[in-house]
Amino acid sequence: MDASFVERQVEALLFAAAEPLSLADLARRLPEGAEVETAIAALQVRYAGRGVELDCVAGRWRFRTAEDLSALMVEEREVERRLSRAAMETLAIIAYHQPVTRADIEAIRGVGLSKGTLDLLLEIGWVRMRGRRRTPGRPITYGTSDAFLEHFGLAGLNDLPGAQELKASGLLGMDLPADLIAPPSLGEVDDEDPLEPGDTPEFYQDQIGEG
Q: Which residue(s) pair with 18 in the sheet?
């Protein structure tokens, strides 16, 4: 199959897609045997340094405005939703220590976790329920979502910045506990069962109060 034609097909699919596409998504739409990875590599080279670039987010590919031109896309009427310190700390704990339970978050922060904090992160879509830990009570575990990676421009959790970078950017306070940020232990989870039909965040369960 002509490589240049496959490249054009992949380019058209990514251009028209409403959301990022994985290599498998692209392969399903192309004739059998199409060299999708080769086409992606060629498109990356072609669009490097252009006004629109090919970018990988959470293992999926998309075209996006070049970072140095992003200010052109900002609308003055846009209203940013600022997260509270508690929400930012909770998000950081979930990102760097996932999968975590509510009790884990409270232990690391040293204070109780309010209903509204976790509700907000779930509503935004940056946090998701992952499963249930294989411990008494089988508490629900939480982790970050693809939307979290996309919002912060991360290809994967391995690209999470270090504590000093976060503090220098002003995203986290200088007085946070040292163990709030830790290198993510990816691929080491073996104490978690999948969610079951009807599972809801623990805050919505009658037997658990706001904390």
A: none
Which sign does the torsion angle of CA 113, 116, 122, 124 carry?
Answer: negative
Tokens of 90: 């909770």
Q: What domains sit in the chain, N to C, each tagged with a CATH number?
A: 3-73 (1.10.10.10), 85-204 (1.10.10.10)
- State which amino acid sits at residue 85: R
Q: Measuring CA to CA, how many Å separate 111 from each of 14, 131, 156, 172? A: 45, 24, 29, 17
Split at pLDDT 50, 70, 90, the class of 158 is confident
Give me the torsion for CA of 93, 169, 80, 48, rounded to 10°.
Answer: -100
86-119 confidence digits (pLDDT tens) = 888 888 889 888 889 999 888 888 888 887 888 8
Question: What is the rounded distance in angstroms from the CA atom of residue 58 to the CA atom of residue 20?
Answer: 9
Q: Three-class SS string for 76-124? A: CCCCCCCCCHHHHHHHHHHHHHCCECHHHHHHHHCCCCCHHHHHHHHHH
Q: How far apart are CA 197 and CA 200, in angstroms?
A: 9
pLDDT number for residue 42: 94
